[in-house]
Amino acid sequence: MLIYKICPAPLWREAEAAGRLTGAPVDLADGYIHFSTAEQVPETAAKHFAGQGDLLLIAIEAEALGEALKWEPSRGGALFPHLYRPLEIGEAQWVRPMPLNDDGTHEIAL
Length: 110
What we know:
This protein is of the alpha+beta class. The protein has a single domain (2-97), classed as Protein of unknown function DUF952 (ADP-ribosylation fold), CATH 3.20.170. It has helices at 9-18, 25-30, 41-48; strands at residues 2-8, 20-21, 33-34, 55-61, 69-73, 79-83, 87-88, 92-97. The longest helix has 10 residues, at 9-18.
């Protein structure tokens, strides 16, 4: 099963140079890297990234993350995947741009 990280492109470029993503400011503050399922990505984009350009969608195989990945309740009690360690760049299955549509929503290609 793939899970997804919405990431500002500059942060991902920094992570590529370092070999790992330690997280965005919200991840660092919470102590884990936030991910979403395919069903959760549109709402996550709308709620936390509305109108933001230069974003990337990063796909990760959930099972490959092992025990550091925890499924925990968040919005409305839904279970969200949270990674309690840095994400190694090589764990990304693919990375795709999330361009903004004219209405400010993101184009999401899963």
